[in-house]
Every structure is written in C-alpha cells, then in structure tokens.
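G., the chain you wanted modeled:
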Amino acid sequence: MNEKKFNDKAEAYVAARPSYPAEFINMLFDVSGGIGMSQSSTVVDVGSGTGKFAELLLDRGAKVFAVEPNDDMRAAAEKRLSAHRLFVSVRGSAENTTLADKSADFVTAAQAFHWFDAAAFRNECLRILKPGDKALLVWNAFDDTDKNCCAYGEILRAHCPLFRGFGGGYADNPGAIQLFFDGAYQTATYTSVQSYDRQGLINRALSASYTPRPSDDGYAAFIDTLSAFFDARRHEGKINFSNRTNAYYGALYEKAA
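Predicted structure as tokens:
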C-alpha cells in the first residue's frame, strides 16, 4: 500500500527535503491576485507527511488539518508542529480524510498527488470543500535541464528500479491535472537552488520512497555512488541543484453529466 512506502523515511525527509519559496507562499495569501488564503482560512493539507508545507501555512495564521496515513510521517509532523494551536493532525487518506462535509476553504496536496487515486480524491475534495472553493496541487521537482539534476537522475535510474521520474512523473503531467480540475485551473512556477553537503545529499536521496533501505542488498553500492558523485561535483563543500516549484490551482465543481 502507498501509505507504507514512507515507513522509516521520516527522519531523512525532515532533514533534507526542501521547503517552498517565500514568493509562492506570498501568492497563496495574496487576496487580490493569488489564491486568497488568509488567517481565517481552514486548509486541509492531504498527504501532509512531516508537515513541511503545513508549517508554512500555520506560520501565516491559517488553521491546518494535516491528513496523513503513514504513522511515521504523521508522528514526525506532530513532534514538529504540536506547538501551533491551529494545527490538527488527522489519521486519514486522500480518498477518506474523515473530515466533515463542507468543512474546508482550501484543500492542498504538496508533493503527494501522484500517490492518490485521483478520481476518489477529487470526489473527497468536492465533499469537504465549501462550494466553489479551491484545490491546490504543488510539487518541488529537480530541474531536468540542470546538469547536476540530470546526473543525479541517472544514478536513481541505475540503482532504484521503482524510480519513475522526479515528482513521481506527475509534476509535469498536465493531462492528469487537467482531468482533476476538469480543465479549469491556473499554474505558477518558481525557481530556487538547493544546496547539500555530503550527508545532506544522502539524506535527500534516502527520503524518497523508491531508494533502498539499509537492509536492502543494493544500499551500500547506492551510497558509494552518491558519495563519488558528490566528490566529483562539489564546490566549496556543497553540491547545488536547480529546483522548480510547480503549482496548479483552481475551484472544483461537479462535472456535468
């Protein structure tokens, strides 16, 4: 089951997964030209993981129901975010959030939509969203035009049979996204640079669902290859990757019969 793919990955996820650009979060809370979140918004963040995206919304004053089926990831979020009085941890899934009808102003899925049953998730969004309110899908993805990102991707393809591309292959899949929004959505893209030292690079790799675990036969060879890659490309003790934050958002409505 998808919810078990991140067992034992939470620590690496917290340590090395990137956050989201400030410009993107500003857009979410721009009432005139953005999505229109505010301090009075109730946001349901589905597939919330360790709470990286939820934390940014909480910091702006939104109430966040963080829905996560994986026990390890949810526990990491609770440890990090329990001090936020507007944080609510929920053991639920994209297809069954367990939340009340028409209880959300926004539904978000950060780094998660590719794990969902898209049709069932859409139905669940329609159930919990207030009429005409918005859903947001967002991914951080390595820029596949960047030389370091391309070389890193080749390492993943060689050592990780379950690797299907950055963002699970959905980050640049407008067909699936169009079906989810029924054709009516907006997009926004932001660029940034992610820098890692050796351990940071290893943690970033190990945070992915498809990379080997220490008990797997290919683990040692994978770590050795990552270390050699780092040594060959480091500059002043760091290796840099170009990152794209791709966002897709719009109001959800029942599809015409």
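The radius of gyration is 18 Å.

Shout if anything looks off.
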